[in-house]
From TrEMBL:
Protein name as it appears in the record: Thioredoxin reductase
Keyword Oxidoreductase: yes
Keyword Flavoprotein attributed: yes
Keywords from the UniProt entry: Flavoprotein, Oxidoreductase
Length: 302
């Protein structure tokens, strides 16, 4: 491939969808893949439109990757360490190499705050510890569910899970003053355990959480409500406008506050959902294509 017109930072569902769209718009696209997007943790999703029997995160990514490559996108392993402006364009610094591009799409996602407990990664891979009740809360129907939180976010997630089960327990591991909704938990029938958690033990298809006063409790699954951190450093260093939660602010076309810089997926404020990320990517890719057409002098570009 000759020099790319568009650099996409991130090879998750948003980045790969945008690459497919831009490839079909006959744009030269480079996707920078830093490895292990958040979707690769999904053991089986029943929340992905078009897959009623469910589909795994790795399978979703494989299919999307094949499709992007089919339309000419280049996918290169590596990490963009820095983005710089170069007049009306950008320079991405990747593994010491400088790559110029007319436009950049950030699809860098977020990092989950997993509990610092032995065995937690294996538990996530087995879907015994989960991170997204919107994605798979339905599968928790009538099960014994624990919510692990350190703030009122845990209480809000526990309240949401009452949609599916009347056996919901909130394990609050943060300071007492960070849980202000204890009365609401009691009203909803959510048991609250305020104590540090020391371990997660897997036993067949259940989770045994240990660590408060020598007691142990078994749950069918545990949701971690410890939050996320957006991977927005590249845009922040350029001076792009961020929301209060650190995610990127974008307009209705997924454009950031900096001309030539777009963003889609979990790094943007909104639901952390594959369906949302792919929709945002389609909007962003179309706007990028039209913006480049206008820059090239097309009088009708939309």
């Amino acid at each position: 491939m000759s020099a790319p017109e568009v650099v996409i930072v991130g090879a998750g569902p948003a980045g790969l969808t945008a690459a497919t769209y831009l490839g079909r718009f006959r744009r030269r696209v480079l996707v920078v893949d830093a490895g292990e997007p958040r979707a690769c943790w999904i053991p089986l999703s029943h929340n992905m439109p078009g897959f009623p029997a469910g589909v795994s995160g790795p399978d979703i990514l494989r299919r999307m990757r094949e499709q992007a490559l089919e339309y000419g996108a280049e996918i290169r392993p590596g990490r963009v360490e820095r983005l710089m402006r170069d007049e009306d364009a950008f320079v991405a610094v990747m593994d010491g190499q400088r790559i110029g591009a007319r436009a950049v799409l950030l699809a860098t996602g977020v990092v989950d705050h997993h509990p610092d407990l032995p065995g937690v990664e294996r538990a996530v891979q087995r879907a015994l510890v989960r991170i997204c009740p919107i994605c798979d809360g339905y599968e928790a129907t009538d099960k014994a569910v624990a919510i692990l939180g350190d703030s009122d976010k845990g209480a809000r997630e526990a309240a949401f899970m009452r949609t599916y089960s009347d056996r919901v327990t909130l394990i609050h591991i943060g300071p007492a003053d960070r849980l202000t909704q204890a009365d609401e938990m009691a009203r909803l029938g959510v048991e609250v355990i305020a104590a540090p958690l020391e371990a997660v033990r897997l036993e067949q298809d259940r989770v045994t959480a240990l660590g408060w006063g020598g007691q142990s409790r078994a749950f069918d699954l545990v949701y971690s409500a410890l939050g996320t951190s957006p991977n927005a450093e590249l845009a922040r260093d350029l001076g792009a406008r961020l929301a209060a939660d650190g995610r990127l602010e974008v307009d209705l076309h997924q454009a950031t506050s900096l001309p030539g810089l777009w963003a889609a997926g979990d790094v943007v404020r909104g639901l952390n959902q594959i369906a949302v990320a792919t929709a945002e990517a389609a909007v962003a890719a179309t706007d990028i294509h039209n913006a480049l057409r206008r820059a090239d002098g097309w009088t009708v570009a939309d």
